[in-house]
Amino acid sequence: MRRYTARPSWDNKCEIHDQFTGKVQTILTESDAEAEALANRVDDMNDEFQKTVEAVDSLMRRLNILGGNERNDDIVLALRREHRTLQQNFTRLCVAWLDSLAKLEPNEYDLRMEGSVKLAKALQASDVWERCKYLPTI
Description:
The protein is built from five helices and three strands; from the N terminus they run E-E-E-H-H-H-H-H. It is mostly helical. It folds into two domains: 1-81; 83-133, no CATH class. A hairpin with a 5-residue loop joins strand 2 and strand 3 (24-28). The chain starts with a strand and ends in a 6-residue tail after the last helix.
C-alpha cells in the first residue's frame, strides 16, 4: 500500500503527495542526486507506513478473536508488562485516536461507533482534556 508519492514539479522542486490526507509538501531538489534521495525517502516512508498497517491489522485481528470486554484484560495485562515509556507512547496513541473520533461528523460513523464517538466528544469537551492530553516523554 503506497501512501506517499513523489512528483517532480517546476523549478527543481518535487512534491510529496499524501494519498490519505491530501496534503502536499514541496521540497527543493537542486540536483538529480537530491531528487533520487527524495524518491528513496518516499519509498522508506511507504515502507514504514506498510509496517504500521500490518501492526494495526494484527491488533485488529486479535481484538476480533478476543471479542468482548471480558477478554480485553489480556491486552491490558500484556501492555502493563511493557516498558513505561512504551506504555506512555501507547497512551498518546489512545489520546490521538480519541481526538480523531471527537472530530468525526455524524455521516462518518454509524451505531457501532456511536458510543466511542460520544465518549471522545465528552472527554474533549471536559476541562480535564486540555489539562491532561499532553503526555510528556521523560
